[in-house]
């Protein structure tokens, strides 16, 4: 099963991200840096040479920032860990290893025994984490290949 969370970088919840950095014990210095970057952001738009009033930015990671993919992966890792550790989700076994999910940026590949049944379990179990990431609000493309 392939999953592409469109506009996922635009919708990352800052509070969730900062909480995950704290939970992963990445250090108060890093947490403070990210908190400083992702708190009280504002932007102005120039239209026909005129600058608009400030617009408050409340979610998402900065486009083009080298830190943005890392921050997204940090937030997503919580969800991926829950999937990997969940005994109700049966992955693909190769020798003695079981593979359930791999990801790169906002693309995920699930290696699961029964995609239809397991897909329902994924939906039930991880709905809350997807909402925290705000991926649930996005148009998510699922493609099933048998």
List the helices and strands and how they pair.
Elements: E1 2-5, H1 14-23, H2 28-37, E2 41-43, E3 46-47, E4 50-51, E5 55-57, H3 68-85, E6 92-94, E7 97-99, E8 101-104, E9 107-110, H4 115-133, E10 140-143
Antiparallel strand pairs: 1-9, 1-10, 2-5, 3-4, 6-7, 8-9
Helix pairs in contact: 1-2, 1-3, 3-4
What would you say this structure looks like, in words?
This protein is α+β, with helices and mostly antiparallel strands and 146 residues long. It has one domain. Helices cover 39% and strands 22% of the residues. The protein is built from four helices and ten strands; from the N terminus they run E-H-H-E-E-E-E-H-E-E-E-E-H-E. A four-stranded antiparallel sheet has the order 8-9-1-10, covered by helices on one side. It has a two-stranded antiparallel sheet with strand order 2-5. Helix 1 packs antiparallel against helix 2, helix 1 crosses helix 3 and helix 3 packs across helix 4. This is Reverse transcriptase domain-containing protein. Pfam families: RVT_1. InterPro entries: DNA/RNA_pol_sf, RT_dom.
């Amino acid at each position: 099963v392939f999953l592409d969370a469109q506009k996922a970088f635009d919708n990352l919840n800052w509070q969730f991200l900062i909480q995950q950095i704290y939970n992963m014990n990445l250090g108060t210095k890093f947490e403070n840096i990210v908190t400083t970057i992702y708190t009280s952001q504002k932007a102005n738009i120039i239209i026909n040479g005129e600058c608009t009033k400030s617009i408050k930015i409340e979610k998402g990671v900065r486009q083009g920032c080298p830190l943005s993919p890392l921050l997204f992966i940090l937030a997503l890792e919580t969800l991926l860990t829950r999937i990997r550790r969940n005994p109700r989700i049966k992955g693909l076994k190769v020798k003695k290893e079981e593979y359930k999910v791999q990801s790169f940026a906002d693309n995920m590949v699930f290696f699961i025994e029964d995609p239809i049944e397991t897909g329902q379990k994924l939906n039930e179990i991880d709905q809350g984490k997807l909402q925290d990431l705000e991926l649930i609000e996005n148009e998510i493309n699922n493609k099933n290949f048998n």
